[in-house]
Each structure stands twice: as C-alpha cells, then as structure tokens.
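Let us practice reading a record.
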Amino acid sequence: CRAIGDGPMSFDIYYLSLRHGEPLRFPLLRLEQLFGPYIEARAPSDWDLRFPDGGYSHVFVHEEETEQIFNLAIERPAAAPELWEALYTLMRERPSMLYWPGGSAVADHAYLTELGDGIATGSCAVVGSAAELLKWIGTTA
C-alpha cells in the first residue's frame, strides 16, 4: 500500500448507502454534480476521473434503470483533494459508509445505527472532514 500523497493507492474503496440494512438510493445526478468537472470518459457503468493535479481514479457506478444508485467503487483512488471532498460530501448527506481493506468510516455517529446491525464493524471511525478521512485510511490500510 502506498502512502497518501504518493500517487494512486493500490487498493479499492467502496461507498455504500443503507438505511436499516436496505439500499438507500439517491439520484445519479448527485454523483454527476460532485464528480462532473473531473469526468474524463464515461460508460454506462464506469467513469474515468482526472483531477487538476493529474491524479486519476476509475469509478464503477452501479446505475439502475431509474438512475438511482446506492453504492460505488473507486479503483486506485487518487490523492487528489477533490476526490476526497466529494466522497466526504456524499458521506455527510445520507446514512452511508466508505470502506476498504482494513477499515471503514462514517461521517456521523448516528449513521452507525441507521446503516443496520453489524454493517459497520471492526476498524470503523466517525470522521469530521475529508482530511480526517484520509488520515484514517492512512492508518488502517
């Protein structure tokens, strides 16, 4: 695993939005609003993101016919602050978590119970900013 800031990380991270164990869908449009300026290429199920610092990430978007999503995966997340601010914004907006090999995080302590029993276990932290999220990933990945 590479340190934050040393280029792309060598693992995937996942975003999941649930309420009491059931998918909590939200409009794909919201994801487009957050990542739109950075979408370099787009296919129905995945996007290539390019950030101002040259960082690159590949995002798997699980679109449904209704254009509602509840999860996504980021392959080799870039260190670009724009990526982490967007992910943290999503985490704050609804009961959700970000997880990766070795840990997970939520943006609000109340989300731990809203997500569902046993969803956020092990090394899970409540983070108050994108910077705290990056720091937590760096200590658990």
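A brief commentary: The longest helix spans residues 81-93.
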